[in-house]
Sequence to fold (471 residues):
Amino acid sequence: MERRALGVLAVILIALMAIVATAGLDHLPPALKKSVDSAEKQLSDDRTALDKDRTQLEHAITEEPLLLGKQAAPWRERLDQDRAQLDQAAEKLAALQQLAKANRRSDEEKVQRDLRDFNSLRDAALRDGSGVETEAERRVAAKRALPARIQTMKASYESLENIDSGTAAAPIQKAINDWPAKRDDLQARIGSLGDLKSQGQKVWDSSAPLRMAAEQQRLADADIDTLLDQADRMDSLSRQADQTVTTTAALAGQLYVGWDKLLLDVERGHDAREKVRIVSTRFPDSTLAHGVTTSEDRWEPLDTFTTHADEHTGMVIERKPAGKYDSEAEHDVQPPAYAYIAPPGQSNAYGSWSGGVWHWLPEYLLLSHLLHSSQGPIYVPDYDAYRYARSRGEVFYGRNHEYYTPRPSAPQPSSSNGWYTERPRGGFAGSQYQSHGSFSGSQYRSRGTFGSSGFGSSGARSYARSRGGRR
Fold:
């Protein structure tokens, strides 16, 4: 029985070996073998391309011996090295062809590695050879285009010289005078123009002999690169100056615009987004009078600064007062329009208090309307409670939570006074609203018009107790 079993086993093994041989399971993958087979033609094409680069280089050197003579020897040496790399690639290919001929599965990893090395050698040689030929052509083209290049250099110099901080930067100077808090920053930005103009003058003066020689068609070919470098430097200085004026003017313009981002709606899901209303008011000067208000509704990705976004629908989630850059926008959640109100007993460019009620000036009724401040009049205790909440780093939702939008199944917010809750990240420490009005830091801050004793933090607490007995 044992002999019979061994015989059967031997037959099975022979059959399996035949199947393996027939199926080619012990051979290199066909795709890999095909890559090796096509490599010889690739190498032949590479040699042809490198020979073409050398021919074109020699032709250029013959046509412009003075211009290219200094670099001729280094270029030829590089092309010789590129040819040597292709020879190394040929040796690598010969070894690969032997492995492909053996056609063993066990050699697959080595074939893949050697094929990568082969391609790396030939690619490097081709790139360098092409680079040599391109550099020679660039120099020849630059010489032919030199008159036009000098004119471009002159235009850059004149553009740099014409940047007059008293004319081109007039809006910046106005902002410097209007907004003392930004004076140092704006002056520092404009001050860099003087340095750029000084550098430009040095480049222009130092290039004068070469420019004159070029215009008289007697510039030595060896000096062309020097003149081209000077022209590039002049262009760069001119662009820097233009960018400085453009950027600084844009920042100065931001100081005359105040805006609020009002949250209108929130959509959850894979692409969470929020619908917001951007209410902007542009002012002619820093008195904040006669502003023109506009608005835009749009969808945006869900604001990463907003926590519990669903609860803040109808609230301002971001705002930037006039006198600040857009990069200084506040990300504090607050009821709309409250930030524009002066402390009790005072008035400002937006309105004034009368009979304990805030009244908007006619020119800013549109602003209040766009901000949905139609929840009813704002009384002195309302504002005091709002200011008290902000001093504690809490969100004020209105005296009856009229600005609070609960999430599904979410409990109503609760606090000791029932008006404000939820301490936002970072609180409000250091904010201009911690203990002052919206624009109290400005030279045009509101002036008191009548006393307001009795309405402080203690007044807000007393008002809270009278409305619900909660404290």
Summary: Residues 382 and 414 are 17 Å apart (CA to CA). Residues 27-142 form one domain. The chain has three domains: 27-142, 146-254, 257-468.
